[in-house]
């Protein structure tokens, strides 16, 4: 599912790595206030002017802004529940590829059979809501990506995982790991992000 756009807002509606914790990942998952050059790059990435950008929440190893932290309410007053928005075209294309390959269906099925994964995913949902509500409450428990009990948009989950680092959103972590292992490691994804096989090995144990 393509992540929500500013003009198409959804109203409302784990697997654990064995190595590479959030502390060990050297990615640039540190929010920084966007400067005009960042916003110009994001505009080119999106093909439109970004609105409501509070921070660059993740910057790729090769220096590109890739996840923006967006205000829960846009300047025109429109509610925008997607706190972390994926912008780098390499990552958005990979998220779409994974969705087309059927990963979301398999992930949702695993939430029904893996209690640890389900617990971690619910915790990610709660963390997402708490962080957004600390900026402004939208009066809804809708977070994004299908959380807390389904997987509907890997763009949202990957953005959340990259912004926070591994260990917060287990399925977002998995999607980023798969992206890393299919050619984006060290360019769009941190070089030391845990490998996809680590997540699946822990899930299968």
TrEMBL record:
InterPro entries: DUF501. Residues 1-36 are annotated as: Disordered. Residues 21-33 have a biased composition (Low complexity). It holds the Pfam family DUF501. PANTHER family: CONSERVED PROTEIN (PTHR37163), DUF501 DOMAIN-CONTAINING PROTEIN (PTHR37163:SF1). This is DUF501 domain-containing protein. It comes from Nocardia transvalensis.
